[in-house]
Design a protein that fits this description.
By secondary structure, this protein is α+β, with helices and mostly antiparallel strands. It folds into two domains: about 120 residues, no CATH class; about 90 residues, no CATH class. α4 packs across α7.
């Protein structure tokens, strides 16, 4: 978020060294390494953490972090639901994890290079934060009737000229729950210079080929669509625990 400075940035290997890896958070940089490379990366991470405020304790076998970092990591670990939204553009990809606490939300932006940028916001600010994250100034609003195309043709961009033109950004969103309750489907969105579309798997198939359902959407309503769809999913079942994805 533009007006909320990052609290801290950790790398994949620093989080692993701190024992702060998370079951839903991707570690893209470490994922490319073999065990020997990971060990070397951990050694470098130790020195890096010490140079950024961590204090070596227990004869160099442990680390003491600033209290604000400890609080943030504890909130992140305790969150029972995580709203996951990915944004892919021509230039870069970012995975944003909203670790949903009772009053505070930990935002974690993960780059393709394995940098994890952390911010903390109030629960009431989730709506605004997601609006900013999903803003695509160069995208046009979708128009016309929903269409169904084959998954193969969609991935190949065969309908691009007719439906979305040049793709500006693609978003995918879902919710992870610590209790493993009912799986939440992935919501997809494609924003382009000629139109923006909600992308969903279609229940129908054409000669056995999987199909994709595309419905037009306003470019500035992608965040609202994510929130609305996930609100309905959260309220469909019994109480989910400490937090529901509700708009304040």
């Amino acid at each position: 978020m533009r007006d909320i400075p990052p609290l801290v940035q950790f790398t994949d290997e620093e989080l692993l060294l701190l024992g702060a890896d998370h079951p839903v958070v991707d570690l893209p940089y470490l994922g490319t390494m073999d065990p020997a490379q990971r060990e070397l990366a951990a050694q470098v991470a130790y020195r890096s953490l010490c140079s950024h405020g961590a204090i070596a304790v227990d004869g160099g076998t442990g680390l003491e972090l600033p209290e604000s970092y400890v609080t943030m990591l504890r909130l992140r670990a305790d969150a029972t639901s995580v709203l996951v939204v990915s944004r892919a553009t021509v230039d870069a990809g970012v995975m944003r994890y909203h670790h949903l606490g009772a009053d505070t939300v930990v935002l974690e932006d993960v780059s393709d290079a394995g940098a994890h940028v952390f911010r903390m916001i109030a629960r009431a600010e989730v709506d605004r934060a997601l609006q900013e994250f999903c803003a695509v100034p160069d995208a046009a609003d979708g128009a016309g009737e929903p269409v169904v195309v084959t998954q193969q043709s969609f991935r190949a961009g065969e309908s691009a000229a007719r439906l979305w033109g040049r793709a500006v950004a693609q978003f995918d969103a879902t919710v992870w729950r610590a209790d493993g309750a009912a799986e939440v489907p992935v919501l997809g969105y494609l924003a382009g210079t000629a139109g923006s579309w909600c992308v969903r798997p279609s229940a129908t198939a054409e000669q056995g080929a999987p199909m994709v359902h595309l419905a037009p959407i306003r470019a500035d309503s992608i965040a609202d669509s994510i929130l609305a769809a996930l609100v309905r999913l959260e309220l469909r079942g019994p109480d989910r625990g400490e937090w529901h994805l509700m708009r304040a």
